[in-house]
Specification:
This protein has 116 residues and is mainly α. The chain has one domain. It is built from 4 helices and no strands. The chain is elongated and about 45 Å long. The chain starts with a helix and ends with a helix.
Amino acid sequence: MVGCAAAAVHWCVAIAAVTWAKWPPLLANAAGWMVAVGVSFTGHHLLSFRGHGAAMLPAALRFLCISGGGFLVNEAAYAALLHWTGARYDVLLAAVLVLVAGATYLLSRHWAFLRS
């Protein structure tokens, strides 16, 4: 649920930045991630992994490492797909967000929110 909400926020911010601010899709993707990472950490900390027992700062730093790495994979895959396909940028972003979300969730569950 939290991951879906964060992905929706990411996608909506990116699409709005392209549509209304006329940003290039890769820059808009970065803006979407910057907003969504806060939604994602807060939701996972308070809901998905509540009761995890990890201190907030170490969990936040580990989560930021995971999310940042996921974003780098996201951005690289998105850039490649934008370059090599003729598909719409919004459809490509949705596909990339879905693919990266699973790995991010698993790493968060098994590392970021572990008790120190």
